[in-house]
């Protein structure tokens, strides 16, 4: 036991000596891998369980995990003067979460992952209208190229459009709006308060529909259903740690490794082979998203320097 503690202490000291960006990359890599595993579990469970039931487990178990934090905050710190905005943002985010489940279950993992990477493109456009954010010509150009990648993946001219692909695109758009609303809320609302209303709302909204389509889990299915929320919560924590110790433009691009995980898991577990169009579209989307992230980081750095 003593030997184990000594090794743990040495590891901790060595870990803290690493540059912030290196530690951030490691944290983000772990988080990305956990999210990829979550997608695999969702796709496996989607063969039996309705996305509405999966969503109830996602929010219910998430609430259990976060309850100690909410309890520590106390009722006074959980009160809000922005309940209308919380409800609007919450409904959008829940709709998007349901869209994620529907998309992951019904199309190849690599396709779903690539489509969801279009979220930063939508965020750029939405931020202009909701928070009057000024966008440079370079970022507009990158956004247009990224949407070209989305169009290539949707392929509207090939005679048949997969409606689930459109659900995925709509999901990315909805998440983008919800994330921009977080910027608006964060001016007065702490992150944990936003999480509180998000999870409470999810339980209230999905309980009724989930009961309607309910199928009782058996054996290992309970573990997998609980794992969806547990892995998501741990993954979110890894992302928060990554961006708190590393620079966004250095750490952020690692998230796109998820496409490699998705392609590998899709092939090995589900026998999915990504198409050439998926590859071309994904490359355009990812290149555009990385450029947008770097451009935003540079603008923030210049803004701080000018102050």
Question: Your description of this structure?
Answer:
With 307 residues, the chain is mainly α. It is built from 13 helices and no strands. Helix 4 runs antiparallel to helix 5 (109-116). It is globular, with a radius of gyration of 20 Å. The model has no long low-confidence stretch (mean pLDDT 82).
Please count the helical segments.
Answer: 13
| Biggest sheet descriptor | none
Which structural category fits the helices and strands?
Answer: mainly alpha
CA-to-CA gap between the ends?
52 Å
Q: What fraction, in percent, of the residue positions are helical?
A: over 70%
Low-confidence stretches are none
State the shape.
Answer: globular
Q: Output the helix-strand order.
A: HHHHHHHHHHHHH
Rounded radius of gyration (Å): 20 Å
The overall average pLDDT, rounded, is: 82
How many β strands by DSSP? 0
Task: Estimate the strand proportion.
Answer: under 5%
